[in-house]
Design goal:
The structure holds two protein chains of two kinds. Chain A is of the alpha/beta class. In chain A, helix 1 packs across helix 2 (30-36), helix 3 crosses helix 18 (417-427) and helix 12 (260-268) runs antiparallel to helix 15. Chain B has two domains: 2-79, ACT domain (Alpha-Beta Plaits), CATH 3.30.70; 82-152, Alpha-Beta Plaits, CATH 3.30.70. Classes of the chains: A alpha/beta, B alpha+beta. The complex binds thiamine diphosphate (TPP) and magnesium ion. Magnesium ion is lined by residues 438-440, 466, 468-470 of chain A.
Amino acid sequence: MKLDGASIVWASLVKEGVTVTFGISGGKVIHLFHRLTEYPIHNVLTRHEQGAAHAADGYARATGKVGVCIATSGPGATNLVTGLATAYMDSSPVVAITGQVATPDIGRDSFQETDITGITLPITKHNYLVTDVRDLAEAIKEAFHIARTGRPGPVLIDIPADVQVAQTEYVYPEEVHFPGYRPTLRGHDRQVRMATQLIDQAERPILIAGHGVTIARGEAELMELAVKADIPVVTTLLGKSCFPEDHPLSLGMIGMHGQPYANQAVQDADLIVVIGMRFSDRDTGSISTFAPRAKVIHIDIDPAEIGKNVRVDVPVVGDARNVLETMVRLAQPTNHPEWLARIAHWRADAAGHDILSRESDALFPQYVVRAISEQTEGNALIVSDVGQNQMWEAQYYVHRRNNTLLTSGGLGTMGFALPAAMGAKIGRPDDPVWVIAGDGGIQMNIQELATITQEKLNIKIAILNNGYLGMVRQWQQFFFEGRYSGTPLSGPDFVKLAEAYGILGLRVTEKAEAAPAIRQALEHPGPALIDFRVVQEENVYPMVRPGDSISQMMRRPKPALQDGAPEEVQA
Amino acid sequence: MRHTLVTLVEDKPGVLTRVAGLFRRRNFNIESLTVGHSETPEISRMTIVVNCDDAVLEQVIKQLYKLVNVTKITDVTDEQTVIRELALIKVQANASTRAEIIQFAEVFEAKIVDLTRESVTIEITGTEDKVDALCRLLRPFGIKEMVRTGRVAMLRGVSGNGAEKG
Ligand SMILES: Cc1ncc(C[n+]2csc(CCOP(=O)(O)OP(=O)(O)O)c2C)c(N)n1
Ligand SMILES: [Mg+2]
């Protein structure tokens, strides 16, 4: 059957199981959009291509399937860049399709020409410029394969306008042939056995779970191993929700703003079993002092991650689920009562520093997050933005279900949450989806409120409105003489803004109003936005100074509420 | 320490940019990179020389392998290897210096490929040390122009007892 390039794209997407794409049309994809109506695929018209890329990313993270975004050449394509970089840093399977000027016009600085394959080279797992329609089907097949296998990542396919129009015999390849691409899935037997022996011998073991556990859907195996070998679990930011946080073995998040007892446990451990995690500086603090007493087992599907930042005793290259499954089988049932008691002691001490254990009527952002956690019973799919709001979400939302936190971890992209939540809601329509964002970040892709209305997406949006680029303000307070340069921030009237978009808008200024407003939003059948006017100069505690050891945490001063210099606590 | 990596890549558009971009992005120090056809159609052969310690070398190799178009990498640094570089050197010459220059070239088994009243152009093939040595000798005469290909390398035959020749 002869098809033109545009039809080949849609026919191939259908073969890949794609039912929804996110994108915006333009001169160099107009023919592509022309053919769309002939195929059972719905394109969500975002209001900015960055929104399309984040939405595709959110869809991918929420479902494990490939998310697809589409943009025209030139500015459309460059608008995808932040979204692709975000997906790349967090190993999210996205395929981006961009229009390009016609092949005879390439290289002439034609109208809306940019070298998008050149631009995205370092932020995609791979990319293609398809200059012959006969190569198109194969490129799409390969792109999907690369995006979702091994360590997932974004792949871009740039298709010149004339290639979209040119016709060829359409055959979708059954298989891909890559002499140089063969991800290792099964852990090496001997390595897995060695790792399990270390686990059996350890007295103070800790499991550190990263995003890889969620990507590999290895949550059940992680739970089995933790319970069988009686090992507490800490997670990275992106590892959150791969282990239920109300489980007695859960210690929450490690790192710069991690739970103090999680950091203390890692620093005191004699073995850390690190799964699907890349030793980001946000997790480890200063590398040389990270987990100083521990032997290190590192399980990762990407061989290049092993030994990249941290010296490893037993490396295992493989799929997290696959490796964990074997380890569960081999591990001996054990108990570590003394170790767990020591951690429980640290945990009890942390409560005293916690803002929620104080009497106060003020609307603290931590309280808002905890209220959302309680009202949704820890079951909502949360999409958080970047900044203080992201850290408070990580600290105070108690995730009870797997894969219920989507956030930009590696790139830290403000503006991620709102569009990513759209993709997440479309991918998991039955899940309650909440955005938790700051007043700064929400304004970076606020235009997507229109998409939410047009697509009738039932998303709840909580803005922790502190009138500042809060995380930067916090750094200024701690490290830059309290000079708030470029951080005070005014916003629109978010309630009126929501209403202008046809979205229910609520405002909360008092602590007592928080829970009822959250309930009202939940009961409302459509999208709702709540403007929480939180305590403005609240800080995220604990905090590890960049470059410090994670045992050196700045803790909230115990007696005073807000002011007073933070305490230094040595673990 | 200097390491020589023979890297086989699929002969696809942009593959050189991918390799070069990787070195820049990861802050790896590339000394030279040559690329040309291999014995297999559609597979090109790169010889990459990097100056780094063993830990960085491991990262270089692993990161290169992550490029979809890279099919095989061999570290030939410690192996029995034939390593060559070719250079063209145009040296200032006049009636009084020409003979001496040509004599130097002969000692190095280099070829005179062009001769004018003002210059001698020499082609030399050999290890980098050998090329360096000739350059040092010629520099006082005035090197007008020079091009060096960078290192190309190949493992010796399997028996490994071939003798160094030329
Ligand atoms: C796109 C982008 N620009 C700038 C930054 C730097 N940055 C990190 S956190 C932050 C402040 C975020 O402010 P807000 O969204 O109000 O959240 P808050 O910290 O107040 O909760 C900024 C500017 C970033 N991460 N992303
Ligand atoms: Mg703010």
